[in-house]
Amino acid sequence: MTDNIPDMWFNKLFSGRAMNVPRSEIRELLKLLERPDVISFAGGIPHADMFPSDRIRQAYDRLFGTTDTWHRALQYSTSEGYPPLREWIASYLTDQPTPWTKENIIVTSGSQQALDLLARLFISPGERIAFTRPSYLGALQVLRFYQPEFVAIDEDDEGILIEPLIAALDKGLKFIYLIPDFNNPTGISLSLRRREQVIDLALARGVPIIEDLAYVHLRYNGENIPTLGTLALRRLNSQGSEHTPIVQIGTFSKSICPGLRIGWVRAASVVIDHLTVLKQSVDLHASTINQMVVADILTDSFDTCIQKEKAFYRLRMEAMLDALKRYFPRNISWTMPEGGFFVWVNLPEGLDGSRLLESAVTNYKVAFVPGGAFYCDGTGKNTLRLSFSGNEVAEIQEGIMRMGELLHKELCVPKVPKHAIHATSKHL
Ligand SMILES: Cc1ncc(COP(=O)(O)O)c(C=O)c1O
């Protein structure tokens, strides 16, 4: 062996499973955020101004205020998580009195870890799991490690399509993964009617649904829709929460901040029990001190944080939707989200989002995520994801105007005068 071990030597030793995990195109793109001259709609991360930094500092100070609390905060703790936090999560977004107890909750290191633990628990290689197409890239990335077969099902503006879902169920599915509220990447929400249909199918076929609630609290327009978890429990009536096939995952990354890395799973206690054993083998438990900080903030400040965030992001979403109407060519359509962080753009066939990005960054100093990254089957090249969460309103207007110029040039259509507003493009 030489002193300098070449990369090639290690490359031969890495496992096939690890090499199967794709690099996140988004993580690479996040580097663009560091370039001050580029307006980036790529990130999809919360705005740092929304982090309740004073309240977080106060919560840490409180913990260090007495010996008993800081001893607990800095010590190992149980894999299920900090009991007061689990109790809060048990009654979050449910009918009251809540059908859940803390035995139905495990706290995870972000909801990304919740997905990883659920994949470990449910997936054997080759088993079929269903997704909307396009899908959340982080889920594709983590689930791919466990070598399932992905079944991608299209959405319309009411969410996942029922006919293809039934066809997929007929061939057998291990679970269905859905983000019913403000899907990442499309911004689309599952309508109440579709939610009922999906629940009917899950209950009739006995197939679990992993319901990802990452953006559920960020609704800026329209009425709240009950979660799949709530609808299923109403349907089950007196049979109780132990019989529901819905496994919910959630996060405090968008409501408080992502740096604390606190997420959760809420499910029948048999699921939580097995996840606890798996979590022990992965990282023992989520950060004790951060769980205690989150629990403290939840006692009095959660609603304040949410109200502030909603007002803040609503302005940005509306600015983006207005600018799209104003500056984009007519033959381009996009989704009309009512919350979350994302708008999804559908370009005419033949335009390739990755190729456009090069020109966008170099010549127009604007960035987005090419939509092909969100498809597990190599399609979707003529789509883009735009995030409005990280930008100021004026930047959004300027960035979309620059993108509009690029698209007019690519499509060889004359630019629409700034004052002219064309009919809203509604959906994919
Ligand atoms: C839909 C969805 N689920 C899960 C996550 C993971 O969030 P975290 O691990 O920060 O809780 C994200 C992050 O962007 C997301 O968009």
Jot down its keywords.
Aspartate Aminotransferase, domain 1, 2 domains, globular, single chain, alpha/beta, 14 strands, four-stranded antiparallel β-sheet, Aspartate Aminotransferase, domain 2, binds pyridoxal-5'-phosphate
Summary of the model, kept short:
With 428 residues, the protein is an alpha/beta fold. Helix content is 42%, strand content 13%.
Describe the 3D structure.
The protein is α/β, with parallel strands linked by helices. It has 2 domains: 7-51 and 304-411, Alpha-Beta Complex (Aspartate Aminotransferase, domain 1); 76-300, Type I PLP-dependent aspartate aminotransferase-like (Major domain) (Aspartate Aminotransferase, domain 2), CATH 3.40.640. The chain contains 16 helices and 14 strands. The chain has helices at 7-11, 16-19, 25-30, 53-63, 67-73, 83-90, 110-122, 137-144, 162-170, 192-205, 228-236, 269-283, 288-300, 302-327, 353-364, 393-411; strands spanning 39-40, 105-108, 128-133, 149-156, 159-160, 175-178, 209-212, 246-251, 263-266, 333-334, 342-346, 366-367, 369-370, 383-387. The strands form 3 sheets. It has an 8-stranded mixed sheet, with helices on both faces. β7 (209-212), α11 and β8 form a beta-alpha-beta unit. α4 packs across α13 (288-300), α7 (110-122) packs across α8 and α7 (110-122) crosses α12. The protein is globular and about 65 Å long. Pyridoxal-5'-phosphate (PLP) binds at residues 110-112, 136, 138, 179, 184, 212, 214, 251, 253, 258, 263.
